[in-house]
Design brief:
about 210 residues, alpha+beta, 2 domains, four-stranded mixed beta sheet, 6 helices, globular
């Protein structure tokens, strides 16, 4: 990835951005994160900014940012000892874990309680799951999805978080798509159809 172009000059630039960082993994201290940081330091208008990346990948911050933007969300709260009744999605808030997990029942909660909190040292963001839920992962390319039912959802999420490439974990109910978390979507993992969306959105900057 480092030897390939990562910045896409957008065909339809906005006041917020002229360039899109297409690395796809914007996690702190990754090359994708530094591509955005370097562009910012050079005075370029790029998405995501380094701040955008941090906001998206730290789940409690992402939840608050989404709440302020009125995006549909599951009921959530931070816990160290008092967990909601399963099922729920659990996202540890500590320096050692970045992945969430589904806690499906009381037996699994009892087995994972100490591991999730590092024996009570760290909080866990818990997202309650309604009875009719299913969990899906939506691939988002510059705010677009190849799955028609997710078109409005990915457009709304992109407008708030500005991640050019992302996999978005979503809690699907009969009434809504509820944002759960963001996951990387590296450029080299795009399908030919997704690459076509990229190519029609701009030109590569060497």
């Amino acid at each position: 990835m480092d030897g390939e172009p990562s910045l896409l000059r957008l065909t339809l630039p906005t006041r917020a951005a002229e360039l899109a960082n297409m690395a796809g993994d914007y996690s702190y201290l990754t090359s994708g994160y530094y591509h955005s940081l370097d562009a910012e330091l050079a005075g370029l208008k790029v998405i995501p900014t380094s701040g955008d990346a941090l906001d998206a990948y730290v789940v409690p911050i992402a939840m608050e940012k989404a709440r302020l933007a009125d995006l549909p969300l599951p009921t959530f709260h931070l816990a160290t000892t008092r967990f909601p009744a399963p099922p729920f999605m659990a996202y540890p808030v500590n320096p050692f874990s970045s992945k969430g997990e589904l806690v499906a029942d009381a037996e699994q909660l009892a087995a994972r309680r100490n591991g999730l909190t590092y024996t009570g040292k760290y909080a866990v963001l818990c997202q309650e799951l309604p009875e009719d839920y299913r969990i899906d992962v939506v691939r988002c390319v510059l705010g677009r999805s190849l799955v028609p039912e997710y078109a409005a959802f990915t457009e709304a999420v992109f407008a708030v978080f500005r991640l050019p490439l992302a996999r978005v974990r979503v809690i699907v109910t009969a009434k809504a798509f509820l944002l759960s978390a963001f996951l990387p979507l590296p450029l080299d993992q795009l399908t030919p159809e997704e690459l076509a969306l990229v190519e029609e959105s701009g030109t590569w900057q060497g």
